[in-house]
Amino acid sequence: QKEVEQDPGPLSVPEGAIVSLNCTYSNSAFQYFMWYRQYSRKGPELLMYTYSSGNKEDGRFTAQVDKSSKYISLFIRDSQPSDSATYLCAMSESGGYQKVTFGTGTKLQVIP
Amino acid sequence: GAVVSQHPSRVICKSGTSVKIECRSLDFQATTMFWYRQFPKQSLMLMATSNEGSKATYEQGVEKDKFLINHASLTLSTLTVTSAHPEDSSFYICSASPGALNSGYTFGSGTRLTVV
What we know:
Strand content of chain A: over 45%
Largest interface: A-B, 23 and 27 residues
Helix content of chain A: under 10%
Order of helices and strands of chain A: EEEEEEEEEEE
Mean pLDDT of chain A: 92
Strand content of chain B: over 45%
Low-confidence stretches of chain B: none
Radius of gyration of chain A: 13 Å
Low-confidence stretches of chain A: none
Oligomer: heterodimer
Number of helices of chain A: 0
Number of helices of chain B: 0
Largest sheet of chain B: 7 strands, mixed
Structural class of chain B: mainly beta
Structural class of chain A: mainly beta
Largest sheet of chain A: 6 strands, mixed
Distance between the termini of chain B: 37 Å
Shape of chain B: globular
Number of strands of chain A: 11
Radius of gyration of chain B: 13 Å
Shape of chain A: globular
Order of helices and strands of chain B: EEEEEEEEEEE
């Protein structure tokens, strides 16, 4: 079993839809959770960074962490064609310089 | 915000030659940087952790003599792929963290290496 599981997709949605992206994990020591967006042939771009359980909102993006279920989600409201990319979840046991474990990424396509 | 610069963005080299990739933190000091490799349609695979002023820590299965890492300053880490072969062709990405709360990890733009 992988430490972090993420549905690779692809996920296709119409413009304006609400997108839900999810990851599950097995390591209960993970405390820091991140979502990255990666466009083709580019480095990942940090979207959200959260600590422990709870919700965090930033514009059209909302990250949720449920440590009891070992489940994290990223919601994208009013999705745009420019949101088409691969979304990677990532997590670490501590912040700062601790190494990060990534999911495989979900490819999202927002259709105009 | 934190910026990590990676060069070159793309390189083509002949089999048997060596290639050096640079990773710089532009507006913060990074005592630790991470080097990843990414195959098409796959996630990032951590290769090694680069530590300023000391030896890098390599992940299991990564050849330290093939992938030489040097972290000589607080803002620069280099990855040298020695005696490159076609199977080394991949997308290499570095990352670093300012270490502050809620800072996460910032990635470079990646280097596409093609060995012919």
